[in-house]
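Subject: design request, 353 residues
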């Protein structure tokens, strides 16, 4: 299809395995039986979605789960929406909800090798992300160093569901390795409240998927405040962080509140040399899906202008999930310069595409 309109980098495309057996060739022999008998070890949130998670039309005509067939994904996403690059984020980072650090590390390592063998190179738009488990950050760092120099692996991805806020020193080996390899760290929701992770909302466990899904941004807010206050961006000055599928509209409030409190309480965090909002602007990015859609579209542009969003946002579709954002249907009233940065230039620079 001839390319028309804007250039697009889609920063959140959830490819799937055809089944757990896809990982068998890449697993240590001692763990193959466990994979066959128990699966990958990802413990899901348990919240029932009445619309499912994948789009009904995303199932490949030849069979298999949605987004498990590279050729059909190219037809339905890349060609139909004229995507220049697609970051293959998958879902395997969800193994961080499990309990066995060695098994989780083996699963993500096998998954990364599977993606390299069966997806990367199938189409020039495909770019990979190094999936890691956060259960044991030393093992995660080893995986980042193993694949960090591959030319088509452009980021690290891990679950936002965790046992403790991401600024704490427990996680620093991951950031040290990511900075060493020059890769941004992406976090993505999916298993908040599952297994050994914390409750999915600040108030505890809600009853319905509607509540669970709406409150995912709470986890992102807590991680972001932790990253700043624990001094992660002073310790790793080249580290970039991407908050994927966590919403956007909450960011002005958080930046203002954190700056205001910092002015009175800065003695608690003497390692910070800048206002908290400045660290966020210099080190953090957010993806657009699910983008807020106010009744007056201009209100969203006003909000974007409050946080320098044109330099912090990255377009994402969340294909093939039920709340997929069509790049040609959202943000229609956005100024052209802002749109070009959010849809393409910010990601091109961040991921060195």
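Subject: RE: design request

Done. Sequence follows.
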């Amino acid at each position: 299809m001839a390319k028309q309109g804007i250039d697009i980098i889609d920063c959140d495309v959830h490819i799937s395995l055809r089944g757990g057996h896809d990982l068998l060739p890449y697993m240590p022999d001692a763990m193959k039986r466990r994979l066959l008998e128990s699966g990958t070890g990802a413990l899901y949130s348990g919240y029932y979605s009445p619309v499912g998670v994948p789009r009904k039309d995303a199932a490949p005509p030849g069979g298999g789960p949605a987004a498990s067939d590279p050729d059909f994904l190219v037809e339905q996403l890349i060609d139909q929406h004229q995507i220049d690059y697609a970051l293959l984020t998958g879902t395997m980072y969800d193994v961080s909800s499990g309990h066995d650090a060695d098994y989780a590390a083996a699963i993500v390592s096998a998954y990364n090798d599977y993606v390299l063998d069966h997806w990367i190179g199938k189409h020039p738009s495909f770019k990979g992300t190094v999936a890691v488990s956060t259960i044991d950050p030393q093992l995660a760092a080893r995986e980042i160093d193993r694949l960090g120099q591959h030319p088509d692996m452009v980021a690290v991805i891990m679950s936002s569901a965790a046992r403790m806020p991401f600024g704490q020193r427990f996680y620093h080996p991951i950031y040290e390795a990511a900075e060493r390899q020059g890769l941004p760290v992406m976090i993505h929701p999916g298993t908040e409240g599952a297994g050994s992770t914390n409750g999915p909302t600040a108030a505890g466990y809600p009853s319905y998927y509607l509540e669970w899904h709406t409150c995912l941004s709470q986890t992102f807010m807590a991680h972001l405040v932790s990253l700043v206050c624990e001094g992660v961006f002073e310790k790793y000055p080249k580290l970039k962080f991407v908050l994927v599928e966590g919403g956007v509209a909450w960011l002005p409030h958080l930046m203002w509140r954190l700056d205001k409190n910092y002015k009175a309480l800065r003695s608690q965090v003497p390692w910070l040399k800048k206002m908290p909002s400045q660290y966020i602007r210099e080190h953090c990015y957010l993806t657009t899906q699910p983008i807020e859609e106010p009744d007056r579209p201009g209100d969203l542009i006003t909000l974007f202008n409050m946080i320098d969003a044109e330099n912090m946002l990255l377009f994402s579709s969340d294909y093939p999930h039920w709340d997929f954002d069509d790049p040609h249907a959202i943000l229609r009233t956005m100024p052209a310069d802002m749109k070009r940065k959010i849809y393409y230039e910010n990601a091109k620079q961040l991921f060195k595409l």
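The mean pLDDT is 95.
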